[in-house]
Amino acid sequence: MSLDHLLSVVLIVTAAGYLLLAARLAGASKSVGVVPMAVLFTVFGIWVAGGAVELLANSFAMFSVGRTGHFIGTALTPIVALIFFREYQQSRTRSSTLLLLSIIPLISIGLAATNVIHEFMWYLPRANEAGEFLTRPKQWGPWFLFAHLPYSYLLIGFAIFGLIKRSSAVPPAQRRGMYLLAAACVVPLSSTLAYDLGFGPNTVSYVPFFFTACLPAYAWLIYGAKLFDLAPLSYEAIFQNIVDPVIVVDDHYRVIGLNRGAERMIGRSESQALRQPLDVLLDDHAASIFMAIQSNGPQNTIVANGRKMLVQVSEMRSSRQAASVVRLLMFRDITDMQKTQVEANTSDNYLNTIINHSGNGIVRLRWIADEQGDRQLRVIFANAAAGRYLGVDSKSLFDKQAASVIKQATAGMDAHAASDVAQRFRAAVAAQNSLDVDVMQSEQGEGRWLRMICEPVGKDIAMTLVETTDRKAKELQMETIATVDPLTGVLNRRGFDAGAEQRLANCTDQDSGALLFIDLNGFKQINDQFGHEVGDEILVKAAQRLSQALRDDDIVGRPGGDEFVALVSDVNEIIAERLAMRLSESLCRPYNIGGQSLLCPASIGLALYPANGRPLSELLRQADQAMYRAKERAHSLDDTGARELLEKAS
Predict the structure, then answer these.
(1) Which of 246-250, 286-290, 415-419, 586-590 has the lowest mean pLDDT?
(2) What does the alpha-carbon distance between residue 428 and residue 434 come to, in Å, rounded to a whole number?
(3) What is the dihedral of CA 84, 85, 91, 93, to 10 degrees?
(4) What is the mean pLDDT of the chain?
């Protein structure tokens, strides 16, 4: 193999790598900037593939194809990179702008493909004295020098400059992704610039080899550094999405900015409020705000919409001495909070009555030191509903350890699930985090589902128990509707696939089993001759025979029509054949429906795992093919029995 052929193989593998990255990106994530990045990698792949074609070219026509691939890359990379950088910064590019930006690149590609006619991109000759095709001509054409070249570098330079410039407008933790993006452009941009300036050989386009070197770096950038998990959110976006109203004023107390919360508070848009004096904008309510500015402390005020607000003032000064002062007025709505405080202070007994008669179980836990000084989390309060949900008298819960309460709440769960809830509770308490988990409590053999919510309240832990038994029953009913065939009662396609895939995923390499694919022979003729009611009855009876012939833990489903499937676990080849034979014999028996004896035997395909594969899709394919061989054999014989209707996958 010559060096040119070896280098071509390297470039082809590189191009495939970029195209694979593009496909993975386009199909695996919906993050900001993913689609333009996938397009950019596709352009890189075309560019590198063009370099491979140039190396392999033994005719000018083939070499021209490679050159066109090169110019597709150089023409489209700047514009796609610009769109990617803008979208990564959460700035959309309008279709009309994209169309205008694409004019020069598309013209460049067309001129490169037809350059032999007009020589606008580069001047001939096409080869040197040794007969080698020139990847970089002795002299570039006018369109390349005065349109394509400056436009491409200006566009990519503008894109990188905009990316770096905008980095100051995002939080520091998110700047890393923007700097990584800018750094990722250095190597391919530098190599392309060196190539265009005439450095290096003129019979080999070496830029694609720099893309080969960059491929692992790009892969790391996406999957190692998780670039798209760091999509930046600008300070402006954060400012606008703050729930509390914020107004920014200059040193003359004129409004120079406000967020959406402030717009709602004053009932005016930002454009209407800008440059308005604060006392004019807030009218009678401005006095308390000026008091807050002068005192540098929080101040209560009532704004135009009648809500009581707590206003806090913060000053921002530039490092430049001549800079003016900018003040941030931050408002916090305390109307509901004060109303609640007043109501709570009015009657503690009323509040206690509400808690004790609440339909939700409420338990208060506190750290209490024992005689040895060891701190334990114990119950200091439990209302009547908590005792009812936990199956005990609420008074008996007092001073119980938290572990005992958790054990009581998970009494209806298996040991593993109960232990998991207890561990999650301990972790949440240690980290002072909230916990929201479903538990099952068992009282006299009857299970009761509870939603247990634990939240830190000061130094205590507040536990709320909400009964969700009815909701759980509805969820189970909806799951059954979604996964069970309503006619036969066995699983439908969705339910079978989910159960079978889970069963196969839990198998070890030593586990074995079988998949049966069953198709009722002559069902369509019976359905057409005797009607759908008879056909449905046959399907129901066939499903019953199928379930009776197999074991309780085998997974049985009806994908549709007159087809059934069954996954049989923990059996070897001999036992699987016996089960399949027993099933075939059962389905060969006549169906007595409406006083008529109808025959509807079934062709059965048998696939074994791991012998015939492990993925469910492969087992279904093998068993389906075997079933069709059995069906064809049945058509060719006048008298078929259970043995002839069974076929193993090869």
Answers:
(1) 286-290
(2) 6
(3) -50
(4) 84
Ramachandran bin of 32, using left for φ above 0, alpha for ψ from -120 to 50, beta for the remaining angles: beta
Q: Where are the beta strands (DSSP E) in 317-360?
A: 326-333
Helix H or strand E encompassing 519: strand 513-520
Task: Show the beta-strand stretches assigned E in 132-200.
Answer: none
* Domains 242-338 and 347-472 belong to one CATH topology: yes
User: Which amino acid is residue 264, in one-letter code?
Assistant: R
SS3 category, 311: strand
Which CATH fold would you assign to the domain 3-230? Rhopdopsin 7-helix transmembrane proteins (1.20.1070)
- For domain 242-338, the CATH superfamily is PAS domain (3.30.450.20)
Q: Quick check: 534 and 526 in contact, CB under 8 A? A: yes
- How is 603-641 classified by DSSP, letter by letter? EEEEEEETTT-SSHHHHHHHHHHHHHHHHHHHHH-SS--
CATH 3.40.30.10 fits 484-648, yes or no: no
Stated length of the chain: 650
Residue showing tokens 């309240």: 457
Q: HSE, CB side, 13 Å, CA atoms: give it for residue 16.
A: 6
Cα dihedral sign, 20-26-31-32: positive
Ranges of each domain in the chain: 3-230, 242-338, 347-472, 484-648
Lowest-confidence region among 118-132, 195-209, 217-231: 217-231
Give the Cα separation of 84 and 159 in Å (integer): 9
Reported as a single tens digit per residue, the pLDDT across 433-449 is 999 999 988 865 677 88
Q: Give residues with Cβ within 8 angstroms of 402, minimum separation 6.
A: 365, 376, 377, 378, 379, 425, 429, 461
Rounded to two decimals, the pTM is 0.42
**Fold classification of 347-472 (topology level):** Beta-Lactamase (3.30.450)
